[in-house]
Write a structure and sequence with these properties.
The chain has 241 residues and is an alpha+beta fold. It contains 9 helices and 9 strands. Strand 1 and strand 2 (88-92) form a beta hairpin.
Length: 241
């Protein structure tokens, strides 16, 4: 039984990632969300200009060395790496964007692991500066991470409108039905029923992405309304007054 569950999960994941990687529009949505995530972290990092503090702040914000390397390469097309101190490396994109600082030992160990897995290609010039680019396998890793972390940021003030997602997906597309349900939960939607979810903030673009991702456009309805019967539980869930 456990083996069958693992096989079903692998089959589901393979089908899902094929839908993401094989359709440019799906990839673009995920990279756009990734860019928003980076911009928020940039604000945190920029609050302190000291190199060491920048490193600590980035780590506290949840950006690991590995994903920093992949993320900069995905957003900028290339990562430039240079030494700024005997044991400190600076990694940044074009025009110095998304600059991060890392311990040389940690960075080189992560780079070696990524090269072994075939995620990146690295070339060093005569001055010791390194250029790192993603391979196709590396791009897939970035997309996987972005898909798993897809979220909708809450707004400072609720506009009083409920966004309701309803779907009726046939049994032959069970993988899409379960995937849609899990994706909505992961993104923070509140389940009114098994196939009815609500969210208080704008999310039309994200729902359209899920429709395309699971290829269930005709089975999903999106409604915006300021009237929702017995919405007290949903308000409590989202901490709305």
């Amino acid at each position: 039984m456990a083996m069958m569950k693992k096989l079903r999960k692998r089959k589901y994941e393979k089908k899902l990632f094929q839908r993401v990687i094989g359709i440019r529009g799906n990839r673009d949505v995920l990279l756009a969300h990734l860019k928003k995530e980076w911009e928020e972290i940039e604000k945190e990092v920029a609050r302190d200009q000291r190199k060491r503090k920048r490193y600590d702040t980035a780590q506290q914000a949840g950006i690991t060395l590995g994903f920093t390397l992949l993320g900069i390469a995905a957003l900028c097309g290339v990562v430039f790496v240079s030494a700024v101190a005997p044991n400190v490396l600076s990694a940044f994109g074009r025009l110095g964007r998304h600059r991060r600082y890392f311990r040389k030992k940690d960075f080189m160990a992560q780079l070696y692991a990524f090269r072994q897995r075939g995620y990146v290609e690295a070339v060093k010039d005569d001055e010791g500066c390194m250029e790192i680019r993603l391979t196709e396998m590396g791009k897939i890793q970035v997309v996987k991470r972005a898909l798993g972390d897809l979220r909708i940021a809450p707004q400072e003030q609720w506009d009083g409108i409920w966004r309701v997602v309803l779907f009726d997906i046939p049994e032959r597309n069970k993988w899409a039905r379960e995937g849609m349900r899990q994706s909505l939960k992961r993104m923070g939607f509140y389940p009114l029923q098994k196939s009815t979810f609500v969210f208080p903030y704008p999310c039309r673009e994200e729902v359209a992405f899920l429709r395309n991702l699971y290829d269930i456009g005709h089975s999903v309805r999106f409604i915006e309304t300021n009237l929702l019967d017995t919405d007290s539980d949903a308000k409590d869930f989202f901490s709305l007054s």
